[in-house]
Amino acid sequence: MSRTMTNAPFRVGYIDRVPHRAFLDTTAADPALEVVRIGLDQPEEAMLAALAECDGYYVMASRDELPKPFHVTDALLARLPRLLFVASTGAGYDPVDPEACTRAGVLLVNQAGGNAEAVAEHAVGLMLALLKRFPECHAGMLAGQAARREQFLGRNLLGKTVGLFGIGHVGSRTAEILNAAFRCRVLACDPYLDAATIAARGAEKVDKATLLAEADVVSVHCPLTPESRGMIDAAAFAAMKPGAVFVTTARGSIHDEAALQAALESGHIAAAGLDVWEQEPPPVDHPLLHDPRVIATQHTAGVTEESRTQITTIAALAFSDVAAGRMPPRIINPAVKPRFAARYEAARGRAIG
User: Fold this and answer.
1) 330: left (phi over 0), alpha (psi -120 to 50) or beta
2) Phi, psi dihedrals of residue 126, rounded to the nearest 5°
3) Which of 314, 255, 315, 316 has the alpha carbon at shortest distance from 288?
């Protein structure tokens, strides 16, 4: 039986917290939205019951911050028959199974591009710091072993070959910075884009083997998918140039942490900048945290005042779009549109266009 609820607020639930106050401020300005906080200080069943009364779910993008029962899977969606729309809190959507959403007739969006500037700046900053050997210098000074400066002989980024795995929003901005500021040769491996598109984004299209063989710096900017999981493994590190620098601001599980540690210990990889981890945060005894050739950050590349304001505002506007009967941008599972539209009309009493 349909629910004719055209004039009812579109109820949006979130677990515990939002990334920035801008989400709450923006949604509060739209009378068509009702935003509900679901606290973690209550039984799981009570949380699920509250979420079951929501039309939209604003879900955390980081898989280790969100309790597993609230990851968007077939099991959760079976308990949320009212749910129409899911938006992640960032560009990533690790806790969400897009295929499960499609099976349930639920539309999924992310906030791609909202934090591109912050992440690109972070990636280039890691490249510079690693080539200049900042972490090794710091460790040497702390150990009283920094008397001879030449032992920390660094390299310039100017004119280097940088390989990007993925050249979407973040990769494109990274390429732009590298080209404009450092006159780098930028290579990009992205199977979803043709050579002309990649060239327009400031890079040369190459395959994985070419990128690994020719890049002085390898930087990862692709999402975590079944295809990219474990993509940078022991064989990939071995295929990189001796002395290459590895940077990732993408997602944990794309690179093999044990293989990276082995490549650093052998000296084949000179240094690594890691913003993402298999487990976040990684355990304090993780060997990569204690390697003087590694700069470690805790998935903070996109955590700036500007980017958090932007991604949360984008998400709020997406909920407003759906509440008003408009298809939002940045849809992850476009195949669901016909079924989603039918469910929306049955639930809300009007079509979505």
Assistant:
1) left
2) -65, -45
3) 255
**Catalytic annotation present for 255:** no
Amino acid identity at 247: V
Annotation says 251 is catalytic: yes
Are the CB atoms for 126 and 273 separated by under 8 Å?
yes
Average pLDDT, integer, range 147-152? 88
Indicate the average pLDDT of the chain.
Answer: 95
Q: How far apart are CA 169 and CA 322, in angstroms?
A: 24
Which residue among the candidates 280, 330, 339, 345 is catalytic per the annotation? 280
Q: Where are the beta strands (DSSP E) in the chain?
A: 10-15, 33-38, 56-59, 85-88, 107-109, 161-165, 185-189, 204-205, 217-220, 244-248, 269-274, 294-296
Q: What is the mean pLDDT of residues 119-140?
A: 96
Q: What is the mean pLDDT of residues 305-325?
A: 97
As a whole number of angstroms, the distance between CA 319 and CA 330 comes to 12
Helix (H) or strand (E) holding 170: helix 169-182
Q: Would you tell me the crossing angle of helices 116-131 and 169-182 to the nearest 10 degrees?
A: 50
The one catalytic residue among 133, 201, 251, 255: 251
Is 299 annotated as catalytic? Answer: yes
Residue 146: pLDDT band by 50, 70, 90 thresholds? Answer: confident
To 10 degrees, what angle do helices 116-131 and 134-142 make? 60
């072993």: which residue's tokens? 145
Predicted local confidence at residue 2, as pLDDT: 41
Active-site position among 299, 308, 343, 348: 299
